[in-house]
């Protein structure tokens, strides 16, 4: 494979398209799911146990609710047809209205008050259990007779501890103070808030003296709320007029008694109410008829007063007459104003010395005395003018004349003032009359409107009166022809099983919730699982061939550098290494001197463990093998052979301080030697790149059939990659349930970018459940009936896909 086969577009630098990397949901791995499922099995059991335990605790800690049910049939028999009336609109004859009306009646506060008044529900008695509180309905060991002085004590808890047959403790809160008093049964307990007398009942038992109880005195509001919340009334069959009455309570006896009481009270109540129903309607109609009659009488009084006050019943005729009167008054005023103007002119003439011509004022009806005075005044004025020409103004004759003129002027002026006053009085009278006519004229339209409005209202009230009389007659007939008849189809049942909590349902929900949470848990673990778990999963994402899988060894996690195959020659792990050895023969057939590097991405993947045991298994095939520890930063090879990393080793050989012969150490296993790392150098990468390292490898190849190089992890330093380029067979170790998938992608990158065409993988520490058996029960290898075919491939740029190739020989023949 060369660089032209690389597919590095869209960020894919691994040389192939990986669906698992780009879309973890696009390719479901069944093996991985099974693996996650098996590993999560204890957690699934725990989740199911928790959910079912919660279901059990919920049932244990939840008060049981019982429901008592009864069924009623509502029959409305209408006998109005016997009177010859068939079409009266009685809503009770309609099934839906009948049923819904009765349901609302039963659920009404009025009905609840009747139930409270009849039943003995004023005090509730409770017993404190270990987990739940139980109501001692009709079975309380004591009874409280009370008289409350303060209503604030309603709905409050009074704790009562029975000490013995004679004494008890009463505990209650009063404000911020906790009262705890000891009393005797039958004793009168009186405070500012209540009076109590507590007596034992026949239900008292000696062993109950250690129990603790409490009681509450219920208010009507609390009882109504209690009945409303727990009572259910619903129709069963509208066509049959049947309803169901159900009541829920924690005490099954109380639930049954309440349903029985509601049925009985309802039947009695409805018998009375049905008799009163039409009477109420008729009473209402009588009130409306009486009110309507009063309104009609008020309208009649209005019409009578209107006729008396306005002297007419025709407002339009009065309007015409008023207009005529106004015109007459205006004409009279005009004549008087003309006369007043003439009399004013006459007065001006009198005040002057001019001669007054009475004939010039024909419209004035001047009295004879005034006319005589005016004539005499005219004569004196003329004489005085003649006398003035002969006499001086201060002569006695002239003065006498002038005095006579002044006197007559005064008389005439007085008489004119009388006339003028009369004219003014008449004008004012006419003006007042006109104002009255105008006012009356303006009020006539509104009076007409008021009259017409009252006339319409009168007609409407008259129609209402007739309609009310008709309805009254109809309801009187309906009252005579209708009777209620209710039948109890099923009396109140005594429930044996609670309706809540439903044990089967709760446990079912617990089981389903456990399964859902388990599936969610498995799904999350599946999505978050980014480690190699099985050989099949490794085959799917790896380009490199897989030499084999090494089963999990119980001590491997603690001692990764252990030599184990010499102690267990027939164990499965030894057979797995033999299978790896066999597979390696196909990679470089007929090649005697081979250099193998063993590396991993990070530490703790088991590369040293693989190096040691792989070297040992090869040595068992009569080949001389040396294991070289070139992990100069963290050497571990010497631990496998219980030796110390002395001051001699690879690092001292590379600096020409020691010879190879001085540093090689023999093991207890025949044909197997090892070369320790030696002292840690400051420049391990430079030593690996040196010619001395190449010379070291060549010298070892001359002395041994197989040289195994234990390299540093390639994901941490570059030393391992440098070594891998110089060996015949680089081996990469992947540890199951430890190595991440991203490590495999990096290995694929090494194969593609660095042309490590001969790189192979070993899956280490795989659990038996994800581990195909080898031959003889383990099944790895090629041919020989092992039943395993490795999966590897390369990216074909022409076909734009990953091409799988089976068989190591084909892989190496294609690349070489």
TrEMBL record:
Top-level taxon of the source organism: Bacteria
Membrane topology: Multi-pass membrane protein
Keyword ATP-binding on entry: yes
Keyword ATP-binding: yes
Comp. bias intervals (Polar residues): 1-15
Chief localisation class: membrane
Residue ranges of every copy of the Polysaccharide chain length determinant N-terminal domain listed in the record: 27-116
Domain called AAA: residue spans: 594-724
Catalytic activity, reaction form: L-tyrosyl-[protein] + ATP = O-phospho-L-tyrosyl-[protein] + ADP + H(+)
Example of a GO MF term: non-membrane spanning protein tyrosine kinase activity
Domain (Tyrosine-protein kinase G-rich) ranges: 456-525
Alphabetized CDD domains for the sequence: BY-kinase
Regions crossing the membrane: 41-59, 504-528
Localization: Cell inner membrane
Record keywords: ATP-binding, Cell inner membrane, Cell membrane, Kinase, Membrane, Nucleotide-binding, Transferase, Transmembrane, Transmembrane helix, Tyrosine-protein kinase
Enzyme Commission designation: 2.7.10.2
Gene3D superfamilies for the chain: P-loop containing nucleotide triphosphate hydrolases
Pfam families reported in the protein's UniProt record: AAA_31 (PF13614), GNVR (PF13807), Wzz (PF02706)
Similarity remark: Belongs to the CpsD/CapB family. Belongs to the etk/wzc family.
Protein name per UniProt: non-specific protein-tyrosine kinase
Source species: Agaribacillus aureus
